[in-house]
Fold each of these.
Amino acid sequence: MDQDTMAQNSALVMRLLASSVVVANRAGKIIRDVMSRGDLGIVEKGKNDLQTEADRSAQRCIIASLSQQFPDIAIIGEEGTQNPEVPSDWIVTDSDHSILSMQCPNDYKKIETKDVVVWVDPLDGTSEYTQGFLDHVTVLIGLSIKGKALGGVIHQPYYNYKVEPESTGRTIWGLVGLGVGGFLPQQPPQGKTIVTVTRSHSDALVQAALEALHPDETIRVGGAGNKVLLLMEGRAHTYVFASKGCKKWDTCAPEAVLTAMGGKLTDIHGSSYNYEKTVEHPNSRGVLATAKGVDHESILKKIPESVKNKFP
């Protein structure tokens, strides 16, 4: 069966996931191209909130490509609703063949376009990108179905770039009920607690939540996608962020992939976030994520009530 026929015969969710993998790769190339040209075109959107030409261009590529293939699906991107007119070579219409060849889980076979929202963070870790921490950068495309983060693509444009300078990055994906692809999930080491936390957005509350977990080791890195990747790769047990600074486009894709491999992501009270298109964009009750094999409830109980009360 050729790819066009396979795509036509595939369920909407499988087609959208398969397309998002290829689109995320293209966005990653745009991000590398902007960096190699040297003019990042930095704009300050607010305190500690930068935007570069790479953010803007990568988002235009993603929205234009997905809109052309799925014109009726709601797409919400970090950089607002830009005019998606883009160079023709930014329009991606290919799909990942291996995903299309998989059996769609029964729960998704009848999903319609109105049930789906795509959450896009075209460049997660912008601050790190401008400072040269390139391995912190991710492209995030999250698929929410009836309000739940169930599918996701995480592309790392600079994966392993220090060892392989010509690397075109790595793309991982997950669909709850199907599994994950593009990497080999690992569980973190037993007998110790490694916590990952923000590199640049810390305050007294963030610190109080971190200290309550009594970590043996703390990993401070940028980007929500990057921090959740540490959980997936078995390099950390928990990601905690007692702050309102995270948004739905930061967590939709990472939550979906993490959940698909057996981990969990909630707010600081243990409730799931809603990703329907009408919701507010900030994750106003913080973020707590745990790797596969880590007891999410026991971590939740360690967060002080004094911290939880700040996020009603």
Note: The chain has a mean pLDDT of 91.
Amino acid sequence: MSKSLKIREMIFAFMPKVVASLDCVSELDQASYSVLEGFLQGNKSLKSRDSIVIIQGVIDYMYENINIGNWKDVRLFLRQTITIATYLKLIALLDNYSELTDSVIKDLLETIDFGIMFGSLIHNEPQLLQKCASILNPFILQNDIAIENGNLKSKESVSCTVIPEGVINIDLIKCPSMERFYTDYIMQEKPVILEECMTHWPALSKWTDSNYFIKLAGLRTISIEIGKEYTDSEWTQKLITMKEFIETYIYQNKGATGYLAQYPLFAQIPELHEDIIEPEYCSFAETDDGVNIMAWYGPKGTVSPLHHDPTKNLLAQVVGEKRVYLFSPKDSENLYPYESELLDNTARVDPRSPDLNKYPKYQDAKAYYCVLKPGQMLFIPPKWWHFVESLSISFSVSFWWT
């Protein structure tokens, strides 16, 4: 059996569950629904170039619809339609390619990643597109993906040894009991650095070599931020492969800053999720919403401006070091938040070099400070302001929960 047929057979095995998930998109317009139903039920053939064009038309139409208005207001069935249509497009592409070349695999993975980014989970096979990507992974020629100049080892971080004047050191404790963490820090809404709580993570050793990401996910499309920080007028976003991101931004010191920031990488690529373990401290939740896990990967000098989030946050440092300034919600007025509704959780003050002529109240603020090192986790309580700067190539993981 050819590689193409073998992959098609494995991906086609999900078809019954996808068919059973059509009820997810019952609110879809009749024309789009008929297209999906026809291909899923086998009434229309996927073995023609026209089928790819028709399915892509549905994807494009859904993409236009989800980009109208605010993302949070997008109807779920529109995104679920993208997932189902992406699945159909995969099969159509496999049916219409005579040979499974490297460029074909790249096209298939690009199709999958678009579907993951803009689609949504369907009821009967929530990890549908992620599983399709995992099926393709063994067929990628790893030697052709890795960067040729050998392993890209992250250099030792140069610690920021000069502690700013007037800052308050954050508590540092080794693997506290659940009771102590809950009583002394969650209940008190007090930040703390946790040590020896992630020594069992495979990521601590694996992620120091960037070729690991390239071999595992070099062809996968990700969304990165371009610019020093999101408050800059020239800040933008860009879709790029993981390999291109590492080659262009991680090890280059010239040009614009690229940052894989606040990105759901582990939902997109479950193989990377296997390298981390959700901390047991996240079990102290007030809702059943689960834990959101985000990746932060970038070169030295990336910055998250002073801002606050509504959730509890464990920021786990895996590679490199970051310096962090924290401020209590009580200091909000002294930090000069933006008045814009879009940025009202972001402050105008840069705690590294505050302009006291422009922001005189800042001198009354109490700054907490730390340099977060590999293997440490920082608990950031809800609504606490935090400014984060990478002191080297850095990879961090955020666990957000309520």
Note: Residues 76-96 form the longest helix (21 residues).
Amino acid sequence: MYKPKYLFKNVISGRNSTYSYSNTSNLKDYGNALIVSKLSGYEFERHRNSDMTPDDLRQKLIRRGTDFDRLIKSHDNHKKYESDMVQSLEKSGFKVKVVNSLNYNDDSVNWADIVFPTGGDGTFLLAAGRVRTNSMPVIGFNSSPARSEGRLCLPKSYSYNIEKAIEKLRAGQFEWLRRSRIRVTITGETQDIVSTPLYVLRDQVSFKPSQYRIEKGSKLIPHLALNEVFIGETLSARVSNLELWLDKSNESTTIKCSGLCISTGTGSTSWHLSMNRLPAQTVETLLTLLHYPEPERTEKARQLCKMYNDALIFNATETRLAYTIRENICLGVWPQGRDIKRRGFVDTMKVKSKCFDAALVVDGGISYEFNDGTIAELSVLPEDALLTVKIFE
């Protein structure tokens, strides 16, 4: 019978803003370290098939077509990394607890002085989502730097050398960085608004909607968006019908589109960049129509694309919101422009749903019902910033 080595071992361009890096400090006063560990694919399968033996689960996954050996290798590598994190933190004087998405809760955050997401960007977003103060550091380690980009984590060189990273943190060889986050207030007059965690299926965890229920009226949702807020119909083939107010204007604009994405500077390297990225093929076609010389056309298209795409990324401390209207419908009675730019920067935004089965999704992980008549107000406030670090190479 196969027994994994580490199964469930129980041991998280805009203008520059007024935020800036503070003077260097250290972590000597931080005692309780909470590791928010990635839930491996094998752990997830074990959890949702808890009534099966490991051998039966193995056979089921193989019949399904899963590369079981790769699944186990990835699991073991991650759990080994998690174990190394525990040992390194304890060696440095921290008291350590380990949780994952199945048991990460407010009690865990209240116990901690500092949070160490151990996984990738998804794990970092999960960990940061429950830290609602701007004074608790969240410092990410990429447990699989060869396979994961980990933009929110420490540089990959430190992922390969945990002890060196912790020594530098303890010695104060870093700068504090406060990443702006989006605050969302929802007004739902027609129904209660309930959130659903998307990182696990609803029938596979002990999910209690009452824990996240927002009663009728105006309420601040308990999740701050570090990357972005997406609003739109849950069925991607259905048109999203939304009414927008920009920067507290009294005049609104109604749009029909494939959804609305409101991003932070941190999220500008993620979905914001992907949906706005200019492909070289498009630029090369434009140069062809302009009769640009063929020998130089491909290289010129590449250069222009790089300049344009690089300009889409903005500072993580930016206090404005970057919005993007996905595939804005501009035909017939819905003319080009429709009194609003397809993308831009705003200080605040209000969105009213005219949708049938829509959702407001925070960082791709928490979904709120957002149907006809529901209103969301989005803003960035200093007290909502996430405290993390920029470590020196």
Note: The longest strand covers residues 182-188.
Amino acid sequence: MEHINCQLGDLQAGTMLGKQGRQWKSMCKGLVLGTLLTSCMILLYCLSAPQVQIDVPEVPVPYSCAHRPARARARALPVSNGSQNAAGQAGTCAPKVDVMFMKTHKTASSTFINILFRFGEKHRLKFAFPDSRNDFFYPSPFQRSQVKDYRPGMCFNIICNHMRFSEAEVAKLLPADTAYVTILRDPAELFESSFHYFGRLAPFTWKIPGEDKLAEFLRDPARYFDPEGYNSFYLRNLLFFDFGYDNNLEPADPRVEDSIRAIERRFQLVMLVEHFEESLILLKDALCWEMDDLLFFKLNARKGSTVSKLTPELKARALEWNGVDWRLYQHFNATFWRKVEAYGRERMARDVEELRRRNEEMAAVCIEGGRAVEAGSIQETAMQPWQPIGEKSIMGYNLKKNVDKRHRKLCRKMLMPELQYLTELGVNLWITKLWGRVRDIINW
């Protein structure tokens, strides 16, 4: 009996030692990964730090550098109060090719930027791209010196990568009659998406207890939020911040109204995520594009199981916390529907139906299974979208293997994630790719 007790004691001791060994191994692994992550984050921060303002000589921007094989296309334009003729003559217009797209975060902007990439390639346009990464050194304010291979007097048609907007700097880069376009999203839904996607990058969120960190945060944001904290801008009034303004202002601050008016003066069209097809039809009307230019597949979308369904109470709290964005959204929601009324409700419904029908036709031609799939089911590595840290929640597509030659190139372009498309267009993304490798190690 004593012998058996000794054996049991030895077994228990061995089990405890085994557990301790695994715990130490896990702690060592965490320390190594934490040190590596911290070092890489510091490196990336240094590389991404706001650049010293360069005194760039003022050289007049050319009127436009577009190749003009596209003759001014004659096309019957239905008369509407909101329809503007790009050529200034009744019944004819030429496609507008000089476009500034203010790419806001978590607003279907990756889907829209794919449309712009294809339009630019179609018309052989000159893009103003960033260098070494996929944004213009965000969150530092945009400077035209950040543009790849920039020299004063150079001509560009389209700029569309993430930036923190600076109207004065952008205006010195593009032709004077450039069309300024952007997109907004319901601030409560945007906050939920941003919290999911960027939350781990904001250190103040690490101390939020519980499994549902979003709900806990919204119960008492002031308890956790650090306005000066690293990456804190992602989690309060992110839209307002993207436009270059102070995201910690209170909604009643007069500077908020002044800023909204400044955005309204600068941007000819402010689209809405919740009415994406209607937004594209308004864009088509304003810029004299063709329906073919608007075809799209939804890119960078999250799988439904990762989306938090905000209760009415949490949504109200999210809107209150993002009160400045809510004022911004309400203002441009009203201007949006005035544009729809001017365009004509029935005409809009017909055009939206046509766009949806043609998108469904393209999905049947291009997409294996006809729908998006989870990251683990994407067969081709080159079609894998960028994922948030620690998750594989962003969905993508499998290209059909038997796509006919006539559609093969278009299908591939429409399904291509943003980073891969940028690489194909000649952008060197070495900083972004380095960060991607660090993320892969963290997820391991």
Note: The longest helix spans residues 2-48.
